[in-house]
């Protein structure tokens, strides 16, 4: 019996974020170059998107390329950018057929021109889709996002657009890359590493964290079910006591 039968359809995380880790180690285990792992990782991306949409997840955010990843060998970076470009072109029709919207967060201006243009094209052509929003974190770093937020708010205070006394969580949210997204409910990281790696530091304040030893290219729909079942077995208190939320 599939684990799907045990999932409570009334308690699906609204926003799942995933740190897709382990492509390089997966390739090394096969005796192959890291690029082979990234190529196979795209299959897990497709499976995860399809499964999440089918379950009724409304927001899926994928950590595809961090600001620190620019420091990797040029061949690997070029491979990742090429894979991203090909995937965007290939999956556009699938996104529209399944009513899926594409979004992006990060320092997009740092991406190659061809990738940036294809991203903008797919975002424009899927902007009216409503089933689920897929957000790619590309050239993304949470600390950069927070610095950018502070600079923007400071400028508005200086120009009397915002009063210093008005700054609250709502104002901060409005100036983040994720301003039109809800907070993360469930954060998943694959490959056995147990750290956040500069990903959505503000947005995961009350997220449930799920770590699995599975390397990303091996991550299947059953593994996503495991993560959701773990989430559903937890008590989300948001600072309150168990008695208060019952």
Question: Could you explain how this protein is built, in words?
Answer:
Helices cover 43% and strands 15% of the residues. The protein has a six-stranded parallel β-sheet, with helices on both faces. The protein is α/β, with parallel strands linked by helices. The chain is globular and about 55 Å long. It is built from eight helices and six strands.
Shape: globular
Q: Helical content, roughly?
A: 40-55%
Cα distance spanning the termini: 31 Å
Rg is 19 Å
Instruction: Enumerate the strands of the largest sheet in spatial order, edge to edge or round the barrel.
Output: 3-4-2-1-5-6
Count of helical regions: 8
- Poorly predicted tracts of residues: none
Question: Structural class of the secondary structure composition?
Answer: alpha/beta
The helix/strand series, from N terminus to C terminus, equals EHHEHEHEHHEEHH
Major sheet details: 6 strands, parallel
State mean pLDDT (0 to 100 scale).
95
- The proportion of residues in beta strands is 5-15%
Number of strands: 6
Give the SSE layout.
Elements: E1 15-19, H1 23-29, H2 34-55, E2 59-66, H3 74-97, E3 100-105, H4 113-126, E4 132-140, H5 142-158, H6 169-174, E5 186-189, E6 208-211, H7 221-232, H8 242-245
Parallel strand pairs: 1-2, 1-5, 2-4, 3-4, 5-6
Helix pairs in contact: 1-2, 2-3, 3-4
Output the keywords.
246 residues; 8 helices; alpha/beta; 43% helix; six-stranded parallel β-sheet; globular
